[in-house]
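Record pair follows.
FIRST:
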Amino acid sequence: MDKGGKARALAVAIPAALLGGAYVAQYGFGLYPCEMCWWQRYPHFAALGLGLLAFVAAPARLWVTLAGLAIIASGLIGGFHAGVEYHWWEGITACSKPAVAVDMLDFSTDKLVRCDAAPWTLFGISLAGFNFLISTIGGAAVVALAAYRR
């Protein structure tokens, strides 16, 4: 497989694998996403679409490069989110700030998922941290392969 084919394959495989993992964690293991988790998913949805577009529309290099940049964007959001979880800095959403008041009469089934608490870690790395690592490295590889010319 040439470099362009590898770039196209990675541009689809990386976001598909990370989104698949996110949904397995959510529906298989009850790790429901917080607001910043959703922010990380949106660029992967875009990258998946752009990566698939590269298989059917010209110029493929453009679509693959845009997919790689979207993957990197998700990784950068994941890095920010990981920093909030590790308490390196404060988050910018309500899910990372202490609740001011609790409505005891609110019986809704919606639960607030905290953005500043990692629900799962492996070797001290949260899911957002893994997204940062995988997406920034993988996205950079996609962009590098797309930029390669013989």
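SECOND:
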Amino acid sequence: MFNKLIRTALVALFFLAPAVSAEMKIVVLDPQAAILTSDEAQLLIEAAQKELQPEIDELRTMQEDIQALQEKLQKDGEVMSESERRKALKDIESMGTDLQFGSQKLQKENQDRVQEILQSLGPKFQKVLNDLIQIDQIDLILPANPNQLLYANPKHDISRRVTEKLNEQSE
């Protein structure tokens, strides 16, 4: 009895859904992508990358040193004394730990910079979004996140329009 009632309700919703969706303006938006692809955000990202370049170069050099030491150990390992081999392995392990720590630190710094950019451009984003909501008379905005949205026709994604409006505000 209960299952029959549920099926009847689902069938009724199925037939009513087109009428309801025709009345509502529903769009999808990826706020982070809209902000981070704006011209102003791109300039801030480039500045952050330039600022972090010494750390990136240091990590790259460290990786090259580890690789060179590994190649030397592989090539000359048979003629090395046991203590030299142990020292080389210990150096590789120590440098690997330093590289991992440095990589994590750099990744955290990148994430922090992205958050700073998102926060600094947040008010502009909100203004642009509110303007678009009014202009297009949007009733519902769904997150354009693949983990949260099963499907959305790209014509309903307003992320690019938000980015364009953000760029207009910067000019």
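COMMENT: DSSP finds five helices and two strands in the chain.
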